[in-house]
Records
---
Amino acid sequence: MLPEYKTSVTKVDNADKMAGKAIFTGDIQMDDLLTAVSVRSTIAKGKVLDIKLPELPKGYYFISAKDIVGENICNIIFDDWPIFVDKQVNYLGETIGLIVGEDKGKCLDLAAQVNITYEEETPVFEMVNSYIYKEFTKGNPELFKGAAEIYSESFATGYQEQAYLETQGMIVYFDNDVITVKASMQCPFYIHKAIMRVTNYPENKVRVIQPAVGGAFGGKEHYPSLMGGQLATALLKIRKPIRMIFDRPEDIAFTTKRHPSRTEISAYLDKHKNIIGLNIHVHIDGGAYKGCSGVVLSRALIACTNAYTFDNLIVNGDAYCTNKVPSAAFRGFGSPQSIFAIELFIHHLANHLGIDPLELRNKYMVKQGDITSTNGIFRDPIVLKELRDKAMKMSDYENKVKLYSRPGSNRGIGMSWFLHGCGFTGGGESDIIKAKLRIKKDKDGVVTFYTSQVDFGQGNRTTLKRIVVDTLGIPEDKVIYDAPDTSLTLSTGPTAASRTIIIVGGLAAKAAQHLKDIWVDGEEQEIIEPYVAPNFIHWDEATMQGDAYPGYAWGVNIVEVSFDPLTYQIKVDGCWSTYDVGHCIDERIVVGQADGGIVQALGYGYLENEVAIDGKFRQRNLSDYIIPTIEDVPELETGFVDNPFPYGAFGAKGAGELTFVGGAPAIALAIEMAIKHKVNKVPANPEYIMELLSHED
Amino acid sequence: MKINFVINKHNVTVDVDPSMRLLDVIRNELHLTGTKEGCGEGSCGACTVLVDNIPYDSCLTPIANVIGKEVMTIEGIRESKEYNVIADAFAKMGGSQCGFCTPGMIIATYALLQSNPHPTDEEIKVALSGNLCRCTGYQGIINSVRLASQKGEKND
Ligand code: FES
Ligand code: FES
């Protein structure tokens, strides 16, 4: 049976994308376009003593830290990541310079001949040097002293590659005297800011325009700022258009990925097997530079009790400096790591106590009015019970649990439930992002509005436009909404944190409504609408106390697998999901997010293995970094429970990341049932399963 | 070396190294940018084209291998009436998100439905197993191929 999407409209970018007419960064044609390739460090830590260049033919250039006009800094929250290595190398493959010239093959040859002398230092690859620490408590942890029993476990998650199908790429050129950038990106204004700082150019002399973007998932949130700084430096010196596109091995080896993690959880139990409280410590591997690791850590910690309420908590987290590629944003942003840990922990604890896991989970399930991990309040109606019941029914969960739990069965079914806070953590929206949206109308009643939101496949260009069209109640062809261009739009913030629809969509609806209110035919009118956070939100970043998010989206994933005891292979046989994303504005688009999110998450849970040995990733390309293919995916069934959110556009909440966070625990629990052994790590791949089962004999 | 072949029903001659990848000839010499590069080593299918009606990874195909043959890229396929049925199905079923895998997916679908107008789900999966998509989770793509197959039937 094929689905019917009654609430959906044709996506604005469909026709071009299917016909191969959409222009991605690599497709842009330009005269005199030069190519840049990177010269990278061949050690993980040490000092650069000397750089010997081969003879550069005419028209070939070496660009390095020495050429930077402004500051050699790529700010990603902190000022610690240099655009080019100056003296100190902190990870293998860090960019020392660029070779720029006409022919890519020649550039690569020349880059390989650059001879760098180092004074090597001892690198650190393990999580031992913490560079960010956070902590908070809830309730009265003193009560832990009276515990009758303490139950502890530790969980680990690996690296994950975003594996967007289009690799990182960027073009820079002068348009008159304006540095102009087109790139595969998520956040035009991040690049804009990075380039201003590196070149000392003023705001109006740097322009960032979004071409078609082939997937991002967090991986193009920060990294393009670094490329922007490098290429803009080259542009100032060479003054010709330059393009840099990574091939897949380069993208895998040297761009940011999901933070590996280890999470320790202890439950303090009274003599009636009630949980007095939990002590949770999350460790994440941040890599060579802090970047956004502090924010990732915050989200991991805030989400560490997931959709459960515990009255007493001690929560700690560390991000560690290691001499590896910096870890950064990836769909879920820290919460997949800690939610994996708590979901498995509750299950294991129930088994330990001899209680039905579902019963234990139900007992602590979050209800409206409960206090969050950071002493905020779950204010809005929570429909998690309905989501759970619906998913259990769709999957025939209870019968399958009975059947597959029997000895000898090689099948398993696992369920996770979870929440995702929408928008930036804490005061991020009102204190840091400060989104402003511009909407204007011309004399003929044609409305144009601008955002800095990038559509890299999610469908937000279609939905944001629709929000404005429906609010104004005018025909679709009377509204113009194009991809971001920093010379036209004010910043409505980055395309990240599942904030696009809930925050920017809400802002667009408000702006359109204001325009409608003052609408006068035949006149030019313009409104600049600033984001105002709901006034009940209070957050203290220093103590991590208060309401971490304006709203929460919720979900349940159920995954069914079978296990081949001869090959240790896992096959996914079924996958059912239910979500509360507030109100679905466009069901086809949201289902698209749901399907794409869960499949990435299943990959994270059992397939996608990325291992660094001495700072070097063992996986080179998509032939050894395995992501799910169409043959790995069962029929995906998705349902929704409508629960309109009062502060978003048309009741919508965020959907982008929610669909990722529950997949790994669901499949890990299914695998546990199938292999009849506890799982404490993802990916639960054949090697890990073999290791688990070999200990049994 | 001068190399002669047919691209999208037009004869062309290019003067390139015979070991050059078909993908580079298509993109850089003929400026047909609908064919994409996702991995450069035969793992992703973003570079899929038809050579004498059979899908090939153009990143693994030296140009010398297509001498005298008929190559079809998305720019050629999109002129066919079958394309309209497939593209319409992809739009209705959410078969495309970022669009980077999409030309390759559409070509693989086109080739499948040409040789097997009513594939089973298993046959769809086998035919598209060389084409990676990181956005859709494949459900929208499977549904698109199912719908295109049904629609094609009505047109027969
Ligand atoms: S680019 Fe040819 S298969 Fe990936
Ligand atoms: S739609 Fe993005 S990779 Fe398939």
---
Amino acid sequence: MYDAGRYDVIVIGAGHAGVEAGLAAAKRGAKTLMLTLNLDLIAFMPCNPSVGGPAKGVVVREIDALGGHMGKTIDKTHIQMKLLNTSKGPAVRALRAQADKVLYQQEMKYVIENQENLTLRQGMVEKLLIEDDQIKGVMTETKACYYADQVIVTTGTFMRGKVLIGDIEYESGPNNQRPTILLSEQLEELGFELVRFKTGTPMRVNSHTIDYSKTEIQPGDEVPRAFSYETTEFITDQIPCWLTYTGEVTHQIIDENLQKSAMYSGAERGAGPRYCPSIEDKIVRFNDKPRHQVFLEPEGRKTDEVYVQGLSTSLPEYVQKKLLETVPGLENAEIMRAGYAIEYDAVVPTQLWPTLETKKIAGLYTAGQINGTSGYEEAAAQGIMAGINAAAQALDKEPLILDRSQAYIGVLIDDLVTKGTDEPYRLLTSRAEYRLLLRHDNADLRLTDIGYDMEMITEERYAMFNRKKDLIQDEIARLEKTRIKPTKEIQEIIEEIGGSQLKDGILAADLLRRPEVKYDTIKRIVPTEDQLPEDVEEQVEIHIKYEGYIKKSNQQVEKMRKMENKLIPDHINYDEVHGLATEAQDKLKEVRPLSVGQASRIAGVNPADVSILLVYLEQGMRSKVSNE
Amino acid sequence: MEQDTIAAISTPVGEGAIAIVRLSGEEAFTIANRLFQTKDFQQVDSHTIHYGKLVDPKTNELVEEVMVSVMRGPKTFTREDIIEINCHGGMVSVNRVLQLALREGARLAEPGEFTKRAFLNGRIDLSQAEAVMDLIRSKTDRAMSVALKQMDGRLSSLIRDLRQQLIETVAHVEVNIDYPEYDDVEEMTHTVLTDKTTYVKTEVEKLLQTAKQGKILREGIGTAIIGKPNVGKSSLMNILAHENKAIVTEIPGTTRDVIEEYVNVRGVPLRLIDTAGIRETEDIVEKIGVERSRQALQEADLILLVLNGNESFTEEDAALFEAAKDMDFIAIVNKSDLEMKLDLDQVRQAAGDAPVITTSLIHEQGIDELESAIGDTFFDGSIDSGDLTYVSNVRHIQLLEQAETALQDALEAMENDMPLDLVQIDITRTWELLGEIIGEDVNDSLIDQLFSQFCLGK
Ligand SMILES: Nc1nc2c(ncn2[C@@H]2O[C@H](COP(=O)(O)OP(=O)(O)OP(=O)(O)O)[C@@H](O)[C@H]2O)c(=O)[nH]1
Ligand SMILES: [Mg+2]
């Protein structure tokens, strides 16, 4: 055992949660150490080679607005990018990129190596050093002791990881990396409640052995796009994905071999995600479906490996092979890596404060898949928040908790720490009650100020951001006061877009509120002095067109905030609160919500319990006043 | 601190009595002003009473002539502005007045909410905090239990069905959003959604019509009076109903069919069912009657099990206790004016946790105890009364009206070509409102629906 140095913050793991945690802590000015099992696998994507999608893509932009790196990195390393849901409302649009996995890792590693205050080391952490329920540091298996009062654990699916293929099983992290056994045991000894989750991944096949002529092409968008607000260079040379389908014969093979699947033979104990079921799952649960989609996604520019999205499985390798033979285009496909299921320990997330610090051990944080989530974006979101908060504590600054109306990140963390999860948690737009406010196009407007206050956003970017904000405001104000007269020319323009004729003069903003009128038309009728940037025009249009709905949402948010601002003191004794239902009492004791608002979202706490809690808190407050 | 204005009927409601609709909150005066177009309550002195004509602001129709008390905060029960409208016209008119107040912007008070506000605003002494918490608890539980028990089974299954259709529709919209490439379902279109919304709206309007006629609630909690022949079942029915509805004779087996009567006991609306005494019999008519008694027993929410104190405990009595054991029941030992031949300890043991009341029905003794036992069964010992049939009905009407508005908003949004993910907000809202009527939890059901309806994944 030797003293290997003292840090403000130590991050264990360098997956998607770990890298954002380390970068955030370092950027805030904390002297930070990142320890990872294998320096060649930083920000590795063990499953699908893609970033973003509905809700998740918005999260990537939120991370970017806070000064994180997922967005910038994927902008530099994708092989194709798409804007999804373009035919729907602005609230649900989102970007998704296919990543070049290797480039993504390289780029992220480079960013980390060049980050001030951040030290990167290879090493397996064997033990957390704890004194009096306060974290003091960590010890590696090579007996190096690193000391810090804040430690963030981001070990993903490594804790007691076990890989399962057919009847074969062995202890392993994803992609045959070494699993983390001792840490899991230590957390259990400390009294943490762990659950066993599982997830899976499909096979990768050799691109040369795919007959693409039997599949449909899925190209990226022609318009250049980017996640990050800082990105100025766009990748134009894109690589397509391909779509094919399983068929009746595929399903028959799966059905016949179901007993051989690790999942259905009963070997697997963990709860699997409904959000990415294995192909076995799909056949069993939806046996009336004649076919299932299979997307073929290249894993990068300089590799032949193709990810077979839709065929996640834990069937034996030879069955995997047989089943591919029935899928058009994959008849002769060679498996380069077989699909497998992985089972792992996760920390029950209701044991965390909304800062992601554990309630049991001061200074100990957990972030990412270890908290029972699925997905790189969900992991990165928790990582950046844990990094921000660990650094805040180290440097004696305010913690940052985002609420459900500020960001999907807030929805994610609030769900986890308030409701827990009994299967790997995936973000969905329907989890957000203020979806219209949490758009991908306004992530910067929502969060850049916060990022800047934490010194995670450069002056240059902040100035740009403020310029954008001003332009939006000015243009909205202009349209709200510019009156359009029903001249012949204008009537002609309106007729051209299929609108009904103006009877009187009309405010430009009111004209824009008509369903058939777009900002482009307004621009023709009452042009601006200088051409406005596209994203400014977009904001003006959304703001004016959906004003009614936005206002409604904002009113709801105000109501929620009132309850959110009613804080519950940490020392509250729920046994003393007269009249609470027993179930509510138990749940409140477990979750220990920070506010009445949070309490009201706990399953099992009903409105009467909330009223009773309010009365109790008021009683406490008044007796305090009268005692003084 | 809490800004919205709440309203409720604040005195026990019964035919003939004066009932008060009470409004409390920032907008109490403005809402009242809208209901009494000729008056401006902002201008009058506090703590004064006014005569006024209450008019439906929508139709300009005169509803009632009433007395209005105006009390300006903070010298009021809740420390907020309070308006009290004193109505004479019985249930129907109080109901109407409350509904108008709700339509003009008040919110129906939650159980115990006036008291809660009084406390939160510092009007009620600190030492009473626990009493306040208990009050909220018992009032809520009681409102819930009565509201649910009273729903007509057919209507609640209709609402359940509408909700299922709504959530399937919402899940469809959601799957299009969260899984844009999933090709198993067609994109939801405005046309499909408009049809569905219009259909649900028609159904909600029908329900609202039913609710306004007061028919959404079953007219009382099914209460079966059971017992051996001649123990005094029909006598009990007559006493609780205050009228001679059932024939009483000294001949065992008098009542041969099921007789129903609606009564209100301590604010609990009961549908009393007098039954034929249960015994083995050869008489064909009586046999049918006994069968029906068994049926009534099974369908009842509350059992009044009558025993004759003047006879010893028989196997038949034991069998009745056995039949009632998993239900809410009250054991009544009647004919206490005669010699007590029944072993009361044995009765108490058979009754378990259920109350045992001793009565002499011909001398009208023990009726009070019996009535409070009935009240307690539903209200968990809470003291205050008030007709709950009523409150739940007003609540239903308000929820249905809100659902109607939400559906209207959805339809208008579709006409204006708003994107479906925005239209969906009001449809989800409707689903939540209908859920409140039947007391169903909303937690995570949408996500469950999403993944059971569609085969999603990577
Ligand atoms: N002494 C005495 N007689 C009572 C009392 N209550 C009822 N009775 C008499 O008992 C007889 C039967 O009463 P009912 O009310 O008809 O009894 P029942 O249970 O409806 O009888 P069936 O309909 O025949 O099953 C009548 O003669 C009543 O007057 C009581 O408290 N004391
Ligand atoms: Mg009778």
---
Amino acid sequence: MNVHAIRAIYHFEMARTFRTLMQSIASPVLSTSLYFVVFGAAIGQRMGAVDGVSYGAFIVPGLIMLSLLTESVSNASLGIYLPKWSGTIFELLSAPVSYVEVLLGYVGAAATKSVMLGTLILVTARFFVPYHVVHPLWMVAFLLLTAVSFSMLGFIIGLWSESFEQLGIVPLMVLTPLTFLGGAFYSIAMLPGAWRQIALFNPVVYLISGFRWSFYGVADVNVLLSTAATLAFFLLCVAVVAWIFRSGYKLKS
Amino acid sequence: MPDSTPAAPGEPIVRVAGLSKTYASGLTALNSIDLSIERGEIFALLGPNGAGKTTLINIICGIVTPGGGRISVAGHDIVREYRAARALIGLVPQELHTDAFESVWSTVTFSRGLFGRAPDARHCEQVLRALSLWERREAKIMTLSGGMKRRVLIAKALAHEPQVLFLDEPTAGVDVELRREMWDMVRALRERGVTIILTTHYIEEAELMADRIGVIHRGELIVVEEKARLMRKLGKKQLTLQLQRPLAGVPPELGAWPLELGDAGHALIYTFDAQRSDTGIAQLLRRLQELNIDFKDLHSSESSLEEIFVNLVRTRS
Ligand SMILES: Nc1ncnc2c1ncn2[C@@H]1O[C@H](COP(=O)(O)OP(=O)(O)OP(=O)(O)O)[C@@H](O)[C@H]1O
Ligand SMILES: [Mg+2]
């Protein structure tokens, strides 16, 4: 294991994060705060409680997940796309590293940033809505697992992308709808019959449900199923990355 | 693993056997290349645009996937033991690929870590000083000139103390002063036992720097020779005599001169070493007169690199 390489990549990526601190941290925090003001404080006052939780508190886990997913994907995808775009990837390809070290460096840095961001939003939310966390360890576990898994997905998207347009399209066209329809703002139980079944095909439902369970002890789907689904997704991403590096797909000619 | 034993002294440090490469486009860039690079030598790869120099280097360094064939670096197979092989290699690519926003210092220390070496500020400082980059170590790379960026790439390649250094057209777009500095640096590295493989379009550069020269043309390594010997071949001039009457063959009386017939017997071509004080031309012309071989025109020409390539290709096939 080339530990020096992992450290080098991780530091390189974290330095990039801190160079662009404003857009990478401030803007997601600001936009999520706006959600809290509008949905939590303003509209939430007139909404009934969902599953015995006030609406403002109910949307906190979903909103954190929303930022966590989009930020993980965009951080990690940009992290690996930039060297491809500028040509500096030659150095990574010629270095004595395997995909494991590359992943640990890039995905580790992207996930670190997402977790920092998630924590920051969690703290910010406290200013707008009162919430509590019933299972804090589970909450941290879901936060970490989601940050890592979706950073991994972002890494794959970055490897696959051949232009900045492609880089932006997956988060915009796939991730945002999946999150909005994944129960960030409502419980799946609130959907009419057939839609409830369809919703269960949305992987984000399992994430948000599990995460919300760690806050309030209520869930749309069994928490173990949530955990299993997230882990399965994580492993799938690892397999895809391993294959890309072995075959050189989109990396080597 | 038997392959992981380091190569014995005297073993080639880089061994390429039967290497071929066809890109996805269907273009065959390398055709069955065999090449051994000796430990501690400076080897120049010479060839025109598109010959396959960069492809060869990029395959050895792991950037392009090999087609057929095998490559080892210090006895380590570059595919199966890529970690051991790549840790020994430093590469300065042909294109100036650099991180715009990084500082010189951070990009050089990054390279050292990436290649598996513990941080060593002293070594990185030495490298930067040797390349006159020390004063600019805090500068963002994008604020540097092209020549400075090339120095940064060299510094990155040297950061992990490689044993084999690949320089892919190090002097392209570089002014005279930097070119001289670079040559000095290459010699100093060789003094320390680093093996250097460089590519160039310029015969003079190869002549100045290299111990051995390989000429690559259309994906084939058409000659690998010690510099002195190759330069004797390359330094040739030709005298072409347009004959009045065509000859069927070179007359035996002219056997003392290396002569060839061209233009279906209408031209007599004498190839000679321009560096010699006695070129033999005067004697040849006298002898022709004695033999009554008349000519209507004559001209001499120096073989260009292109002609040498073409000749080498022709004599090979
Ligand atoms: N990624 C690629 N895909 C397809 N063809 C390629 C690729 N890279 C190089 N080639 C082709 O392979 C051949 C050899 O290219 P290469 O870059 O190795 O030449 P070179 O000797 O380095 O030339 P130059 O002196 O111009 O740098 C060229 O015909 C080139 O067009
Ligand atoms: Mg080239």
